[in-house]
Amino acid sequence: MHTHAFVPGGGIRHLTAGARKFELGEKSVSAFVGFDTALRQARSNDWDRTAGLSQELRERARQIPGLRVHAPGTQHTGIICVTHEHLGPEPLWHELCRAGVACWLIDGAHTPNYLLRSGIPRAVRLAVGPRTTQLEIDHAIHVLEETGSRRVTVPAATQQQKEWSA
Predict the structure, then answer these.
(1) CA distance 80 to 57
(2) Is the pLDDT of residue 119 over 80?
(3) How far apart are CA 6 and CA 3, in angstroms?
(4) Contact residues for 34 (Cβ-Cβ < 8 A; gap 6+)
(5) Residue whose C-alpha is closest to residue 95's, from 147, 148, 149
């Protein structure tokens, strides 16, 4: 409700005495439309399917020799963190990325507290979402199996990468 109006030539005209506050600005219509779209998308997702794929990823990853799956507790999201007994997180992450597996190298502020409390400051994070397919799960598991069965090295950083990280 508008409580006051600007009068041409200057001044303010009082419109109503019943309003409790002034309108100080316009609402962001694009924010409301975006929020509505996000809610509709979230409500249309098959969360049971996503939870099933996430559980499958965790269980299959736990079967890979040398791979440690870090997912404590009984309630899980689609996120798992992994480390390998023979590979550091960076070579593991590099191989997954090279093979087209979406994942993150977590370090420092991005490392979950449960890993930090366990003395694990770095790991590779994989996430299952509503658009993840069975083929992507199968591919990620295949790459983890292949990578863990051989020694990999990280290519030397290019001069440009060194400059960016400085």
Answers:
(1) 8
(2) yes
(3) 10
(4) none
(5) 147
